[in-house]
Design goal:
Low-confidence stretches: none
Mean pLDDT: 86
Shape: rod-shaped
Strand order of the largest sheet: 1-8-5-6
CATH topology of the largest domain: Immunoglobulin-like
Largest sheet: 4 strands, antiparallel
Structural class: alpha+beta
CATH architecture of the largest domain: Sandwich
Oligomer: single chain
Number of strands: 8
Distance between the termini: 75 Å
Strand content: 25-35%
Length: 154
Amino acid sequence: MKRPWLTTTTGQRWSIVLSVVISAVMVISLVSYWILQAAPRIQITQLDPNQIDYCQLNDCAPIDKLAGLELVTTPEPYLVVVSEWGTSVQLRFVNHGRLEGTRELRLLLRSDKGKIIEGMTQEVTLLPKGPVLVEFFFTGFPKELQSGTLELGY
């Protein structure tokens, strides 16, 4: 009767070679996954003060610069919270690209004539899961928000 292949020296050598090849393929696939998928999510490009794009909150498309970060516009594009010190504008985002890290966003309040009334900045911490809630504080009254337009800078 012939001995099983794993008990022979040739069979043991081939099994070791096969396990090394499988391990190498797995390590290569892990590294390629990290380079192509995980690393771009962690390395978020920061806001360049010389190249800020603005969109009105009512018709802001998903932000391609930030892997499709989308402003939730239903039922309202923003929520206004009034306090004794001023007014907060809360924006909700969906993180389609599963970005991780911090990024600065800006919000401008413009009058009907296009003049800037007030500008607000906020450092946003993006997490891969869950909603992203950004709160901008401004010193005016809600009546100013209703009469003007809000623009998101990214």
